[in-house]
Amino acid sequence: MRRLGLSSQKQGLLLALSLGAALLGGSASVQAQTAKPIPELVQKNGKFALMVDGAPFLILGGQANNSSNYEGALPKVWPAIKDMHANTLAMPVAWEQIEPVEGKFDFSFVDALVTQARENNVRLVILWFATWKNTGPSYAPTWVKTDNKRFPRLTNKDGTTSYALSPLYDTTREADKKAYVELVKHIKAIDGEQHTVIMLQPENEVGVYGPARDYSKKADALMARPVPAALLKKYNKKSGDWNTVFGKDADEYFHAWSIASYIDDIVVAGDAIYPLPTYVNAALKDPLNPAQPAGSYASGGPVYSVIDVWKAAAPHIELLAPDLYTPTSQSYEKTLELYARKDNALYVAESGNRPVYARYIFSALGRQAIGFDPFGFDYTGYSNYPLGTTKTGIEMVKPFATVYKLFGGMDREWAKLSFEIAGVGCVRAGRPHGSKT
Description:
Number of domains: 1
Shape: globular
Structural class: alpha/beta
Oligomer: single chain
Distance between the termini: 39 Å
Strand content: 15-25%
Mean pLDDT: 92
Number of strands: 14
Number of helices: 16
CATH superfamily: Glycosidases
């Protein structure tokens, strides 16, 4: 069995933790024998499993609304998750929330979130909103957003300044990384034994709309340098600068590499503290239109056409996950197909909450998905219509609850069978005969 995405650094850390505990002797030795392992993503015989407390775990989740990430909103979150029959909550934690003043950290919301998740018997996926949230820095601290000299924005092709932060500057990455590491340290301190938090999403829907990349002088100079060896190897290309090697795709590939390597560096630092599984989610490119121009979607993000770039640039990120808000069967099913790869576990990190989306849970599980996390599940009254439903109460929850309830506590068994038994989870749910939606 292969621990997917575990670098030698991460594997070494896990081994060191195990050996260190084993060498303590006495009661510590007994404790080491009964300690539950850290959550991890593993692969065996071409299948994947998210291992939680040493056994396969299926995320039947719900993601709260973006602005539900404060303690006062939590009483309106847990009832929706309970009514949904979900076993996992995906919840944002914003950089501006934990480090409003540079160097001073506040984890009170994280503490409340973890405590209440345990009280509600729910696991957590924590979403780190930092340099990127829907491609922009809206959830970064004010001291980052207002200092473009220290934390530069992208330059558009016409020379104007973009809304998005550039991934090319050490100052931005190091500031983000420092905060992320402090978050991971805190999670380990409060949850290193209980594993309420089972996975992390560093950043959110990265990339940029409009330009294909940063067109600053710094970016142009980097584009003129040789393409990194790891990427040349991935595409079986000969050495050269970005334009020479990748032609019309050079701008997007360069931006994807820049963002992926930026996030990978942050993940490596977090893994050195507490190596939870990590993934990056994608605001999607049209799966039925490969010629769609970069910039009309989130260029640089892990869309299907640059998954190989991301795999080469970010080997420490366990998986890349689609955010699926297309209600039509053809597009939805094609996207699932594109992300269910031999080198990538399928996880629907976001999906719409209209009733039509509930049926796609079966499609995802039919491709051995490790989880499904539709967006907007709380009772705060917010609707992201037209991507989501206009309903915000129990009527929103019912279609998904109907599906999740079918498992009736068998989610662990499904995860185990899907991972270990040939043929389980391989029946792909198609659209009804004659359906065009």
